[in-house]
Design a protein that fits this description.
heterodimer, A: 314 residues, mainly alpha, 79% helix, flat, B: mainly alpha, 93% helix
Chain lengths: 314, 42
């Protein structure tokens, strides 16, 4: 896309809701898409695991409300991200059809929707659960929307390393909603997602780096090369598996989790090793990276499922 | 706006209004339940 066209799109994306969009009045599904429902699904899952793993007496209505507030807060953060990044999204094949760059929702309307959702999520958490959980939720929204999206993403290849903390909050918030305090296990749950994020996103960044290059996002493969990215993926994978073993070491989980953490971790290392050994620069020859990316999602899903089931069985 | 565009516009607006209505109704039920639970604690 020519530079002028991109610039025009960027300005249009930031323009207040204008007459042209008023005529087409956005569909409710476009607002729903602004909340990044697939990301929210994972957030709901890990947040629910935090509630279950706490093994604390919590009324089902309060537990449901806490998870709903976490989901709404994550959706709001996603909408703020889409609002800020409309100029980037229009330049990436993967994101060009999102509601703002595609012109289905005006920038001002998206921002208003995001802020309303963010405020509603925090108030809901405060009313149903309490100040500590509501504060953590606020911090997680600000971390994703401001520290990651506005500050880090376009400035440093460490963007997703630090930004990964935003996605790591839900189990911690879920735990705090259930217990009102923090212990070692929820911090480890936070750490697991935090350390899982870099190998997950760098595997993706390796085979879609052209998109990131077009958008001008300084992802690690673009700033430090594919070989260094693969080396970092391997190192983070080792750290990830070590972290997943920590709950066993401190006796916070049972045998089911131990078996899962070891088995799933070994498979993660296998896929990460395949990526580390790959020397391809052509995305078509990056099957190990694609396998690692796909497996990393399954890995987190199964590992956290194991934590929840383990807690229920104990 | 052509008649077809106007029809689509009206349909989208109606659908959006229905969704907002459902969300508000769900929130009313949720707040009622939260109040019952919180009052039960005291």
């Amino acid at each position: 896309m020519p530079v002028l066209e991109i610039e025009a799109a960027r300005i249009a994306a930031r323009m207040p809701h204008t007459g042209a969009l008023t005529h087409s009045t956005s569909d409710w599904r476009d607002y729903f898409a602004l909340l990044k429902p697939r990301v929210v699904a994972l957030v709901v899952y890990t947040g629910a695991v935090g509630v279950i793993a706490a093994r604390a007496p919590i009324h089902p209505v309060i537990a449901f409300t806490a998870i709903l507030a976490i989901a709404l807060g994550a959706g709001a953060a996603g909408a703020l991200n889409m609002w800020w990044e409309a100029d980037l999204d229009i330049r990436m094949k993967r994101t060009a059809s999102r509601p703002i760059p595609a012109g289905r929702i005006g920038s001002k309307a998206a921002l208003e929707f995001a802020v309303i959702c963010a405020v509603a999520s925090i108030l809901l958490m405060q009313i149903a659960v309490g100040l500590f959980a509501a504060t953590l939720l606020l911090v997680s929204i600000l971390f994703y929307a401001v520290i990651y999206t506005v500050w880090l993403k376009r400035r440093t290849p460490q963007n997703i390393v630090i930004g990964g903390a935003a996605g790591a909050f839900p189990p911690l918030i879920g735990w705090v909603a259930a217990t009102g305090h923090v212990t070692a296990l929820p911090i480890l749950l936070f750490a697991i997602i935090f350390i899982w994020t870099p190998p997950h996103f760098w595997a993706l960044a390796l085979f879609v780096q052209k998109d990131y290059a077009n958008a001008g996002v300084p992802m690690l493969p673009l700033t430090h090369g594919n070989a260094e990215t693969r080396r970092q993926i391997w190192l983070y994978s080792l750290a990830l598996v070590a972290t997943t073993l920590a709950p066993i070491a401190i006796g916070a989980t049972g045998p089911l989790y131990a078996v899962l953490a070891v088995g799933l971790g070994a498979a993660f290392l296998w896929f990460a090793w395949g990526t580390y050994r790959n020397t391809a620069d052509d995305p078509k020859a990056m099957k190990p990276e694609k396998r690692l990316f796909g497996y990393s999602i399954l890995y987190l899903f199964l590992l956290f499922g194991g934590i929840a089931i383990d807690a229920l069985l104990r | 706006m052509t008649p077809a565009e106007e029809k689509a516009f009206t349909q989208r607006r109606a659908a959006r209004s229905r969704v907002i209505g459902l969300v508000l109704a769900a929130l009313a039920v949720l707040f009622f339940l939260i109040t019952v639970v919180r009052m039960g604690k005291h």
